Amino acid sequence: MHVVDARPLGTAEATQINAYWRAANYLSVGQIYLMGNPLLREPLLPEQVKPRLLGHWGTTPGLNLLYAHLSRIIAARGQDLLYVTGPGHGGPGLVANAWLEGTYSETYPRISVDEPGMGRLFTQFSFPGGIPSHVAPETPGSIHEGGELGYSLSHAYGAALDNPGLVVACVIGDGEAETGPLAASWHSNKFLDPVGDGAVLPILHLNGYKIANPTVLARIGDDELTALLTGYGHKPYLVQGDDQAEVHQRLAATMDVVFDEIAAIQYAARFDGAAGRPRWPMIVLRTPKGWTGPKQVDGLPVEGTWRAHQVPLSAARNDPGHLALLQEWMRSYRPEELFDALGAPARSVVDWLPRGDLRMSANPHTNGGRRPHELELPDFRVHGVKAFEPAEATRVLGGWLRDVLTANDAHHNFRIVGPDETESNRLGAVLEVTEKAWQAPVAAVDEHLGTGG
Ligand SMILES: Cc1ncc(C[n+]2csc(CCOP(=O)(O)OP(=O)(O)O)c2C)c(N)n1
User: Fold this and answer.
1) Do 348 and 219 fall within a single domain?
2) What is the distance in A from the centroid of ligand 1 to the CA of 154?
3) For site-directed labelling of 380, which of 113, 162, 203, 278 has its Cα 20 to 30 A away?
4) What is the mean pLDDT of residues 279-290?
């Protein structure tokens, strides 16, 4: 795997990014556990811990780390960027980032950007009458439900199709990568047109474990993993470590390189006439599961193990030892530096973030899309057939779909996607006006294949 050997962050920028990450982690842990005393200004009491703890801590620090570094890229380049998280069970992370960006309070004014709002943010999470524990349609910036694992990469590619200015960063859990849908969707890169489509940046989050077991990809060794991902058509970059300052430098350096590469691929295809299937970059992030969480609980290792998957201190309300560890854990983020006297994020924590629609939590493509273009549906009666006269229904449908393609051609907002059944299902008339998307080589015997189909 490729490793970028550079240290692009100056002291101020490194401090800023790490403070933001601490804030997102603090707010994530607070959502999982607390229903009072959100800033821990007083010693934590058992009754301030939720009676029923439910959530997923293990994946969350990685999702938050990536959010911070992708925000840095957006702030520097104005990149239109959408964030898809396969391990969407890390829902508190995405909610935390949306709150830090201000989008959460803009969408749900009751969850204000102050101490009472933070208190409500914490309490509502995975609570009766509150919000789901996974990324959900109501999570600002989401297009992908976090629940059934396996669809993140195909959803990411779907979002990139016909959106040439968009990059979709897609976090894939190494456990999720074991599912059939995810394993198959690596090949979506063979259908992505660098001219007319946007790009997908897959980020394999190799935190080593799923619920109670190691993951396959974490244990096959770097050589095999490199061969696998290269075989899928990617150029994999590795970022690994458990030293926070070092990982920030490596991740920032790697993000700079992969976003440069994506831009170079697109420029070559769009302006220099480069042909052939590009080898898109991707990132493998190998960091500890539950990073920055409790190292040991009840004498057993937690950080960096499968035990960090859900709620590491499951008896925080009843066991004074767990309660003390929870308070120590949350205070390790130094909330007094991250939030001001009113409980809003300190300016230095958030003043470098992207603004407006550039915030990933406010991306206009998400939550159903703020700028959908109505599909033109031509009059189907033109294709009418006489009752009781022989006709193949799907062949007639094919003629109408051809007209739909033509009517919407200018907006590039209609696609037909299928498992090679266009002709066998008699929809072949559509091929009068479009080819079938295909970036791999074309042989003389092939028909109707084209990069921009
Ligand atoms: C299709 C499917 N199978 C099983 C599960 C149960 N499940 C929830 S989280 C998880 C482990 C996920 O591991 P990974 O994708 O590596 O995420 P992370 O370790 O970052 O939490 C599993 C198996 C699920 N949600 N969906």
Assistant:
1) yes
2) 17
3) 162
4) 98
What distance in angstroms lies between residue 218's CA and the mean position of ligand 1's atoms? 14
Residue 270 has pLDDT above 90, yes or no: yes
Q: Which domain holds residue 337?
A: 11-367
* Alpha-carbon distances of 292 from 137, 281, 289, 304, rounded to whole Å: 28, 28, 9, 9
Of the residues 210, 215, 284, 286, which should be mutated to test ligand 1's pocket, given the most ligand atoms within 8 Å of the CB? 210
User: How far is ligand 1, taken at its centre, from the CA of residue 211, in Å?
Assistant: 7
Residues 68 and 169 grouped into a single domain: yes
Please determine, for residue 281, whether its predicted confidence score (pLDDT) is greater than 90.
Answer: yes
Q: Is residue 372 part of a domain?
A: no
Domain boundary among 367, 400, 426: 367
Is 411 inside a domain boundary?
A: yes
In the numeric block, which tokens belong to residue 122? 């914490």
State the pTM of this model: 0.96
Q: Are residues 184 and 266 both part of a single domain?
A: yes
Query: Which residue has the CA at smallest separation from atom 20 of ligand 1?
Result: 59
Ligand 1 centroid–CA 83 distance in Å is 18
Question: The CATH number of the domain where 230 resides is what?
Answer: 3.40.50.970
Task: Give the C-alpha separation, 51 to 35, whole Å.
Answer: 9
Whether 94 contacts 63, CB under 8 Å: yes
What would the mean pLDDT of 253-274 be, rounded to a whole number? 97
Q: Please indicate, yes or no, if residue 373 is contained in any of the structural domains.
A: no
Domain end among 367, 397, 419: 367
Largest interatomic CA distance in the chain: 81
Does 36 reside within a domain?
yes
Region 410-437 average pLDDT? 94
Helix (H), strand (E), coil (C) string for 129-193:
CCECCCCCCCCCCCCCCCCCCCCHHHHHHHHHCCCCCEEEEEEEECCHHHCHHHHHHHHHHHHCC
Q: Is the pLDDT of residue 43 over 80?
A: yes
Check whether residue 353 and residue 397 sit in a common domain. no
**DSSP bridge partners of 310:** none
Atom of ligand 1 nearest to the CA of 86: 15
Tokens of 268: 């070559």
CA distances 160 to 82, 138, 163, 392, 417, Å, are: 9, 21, 5, 34, 14
pLDDT for res 373: 87
Q: What is the pLDDT of residue 5?
A: 93
What is the average pLDDT score of the chain?
97
- Dist CA 130 CA 127 (whole Å): 5
- Select from 28, 60, 63, 89 the residue to mutate for testing ligand 1; criterion: most ligand atoms less than 8 Å from CB: 89
Are 437 and 404 in the same domain?
A: yes
Could you report the per-residue pLDDT of 304-317, keeping only the tens digit for each?
Answer: 999 999 999 999 99
